[in-house]
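Many introductory courses stop at the sequence. We go one step further.
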Amino acid sequence: MFIALDGYDMVMFGMGRMESFCWHPVTAVAGAGAGAALAYFIPSVLVLPTFWKDPPESLPAKMCRWHAATTHPEVALTFDDGPSFDTARTLDALDELDMQSTFFVLGTQMCAHPDTVLEIAARGHEVASHGFEHRHHLLSSPRAIRLDLATAVQTHRDILGRPPRFYRPTYGQLCVATLVEARRHGMEVVLWSRWGKEFAESEPEPVLRRLEPGLVPGAILLLHDNDVSCRTGTGALTRRVLGPLRRSLQDKGLKPVTLDRLLRRSPSQAEESAGQTGAG
C-alpha cells in the first residue's frame, strides 16, 4: 500500500518540510523517520479504555474523554453515524420515553438530511460531529483528516449556525492529526464508556447485557440508530432497545441527558467554567 504525502503530511509524520513523494510503510519503518511515524499512530491506543470495565474520565486538557466524573444521577446517551431517513422514528421514541441524547452526525448525512438535523436540535437533543465522511483515520493521511474535520465543522455552521462542541472519530480511532485538528476547531474528543454493539445482534437482550454493567453516573453510552455504516436492521433494533434501557436507567435512578449537560455537572467542567467567569 502506498500513501501519497505532501508537505503538511511530512510535518505531521515528523519528517520536516520536503517535496511530495510516494511513501511506502516498509521503507518508512526502515528509514530515519520510523520513530516519528510510529509515534504518529500512538493515539490509536486511546480506544482501548472503551473495552475496560471501569474506563478513566479523560486525558488532561480535554484531549480525549471516556466518562464524566460526576455524582449526579445522569448518563449521556449517544448515537453515531446519522442522521438518516428514519431518524425521525428515533426522535419520536426518545420523546415518548423522555430521553435526551447526543447525535454524533456525519457531514455527508447532514447534507443529505438537513431538515432532520434541525429537528434533532429543535427537540432538545445535541448535535455533535462524527466527521464528514465515515473513513478510518489510521488509513487516512494527515491532510485528508484536516480536510474532513474542516468540512464537517463548516457543515455544522452552514446548517445549525454554530460549530460542534464535541467530536468522535469514526471507529473510535485516533492519530496525532485527529487530536491536532479537533483542537484546531475547539472540539473535545469524546469516545464512550460502554457500547451496545447492537450492529452484531438481532435481539435487544445481548445489547442490554453489554450496557447494564456500565449504567452508572457519568457513563457515556454508544448506540447506532441507523443503518448508514452498520448492517441492515441496526437502527430498528436500537429503537427496540430504548424502552428496556430506559426502564433499567429508571431502576437505577439514572436519567439520560445530553453530553453537554452531563459534563456541565462534572466538577472539572464546573471549576473551568467558574475560572472563565472569574477571569472575565
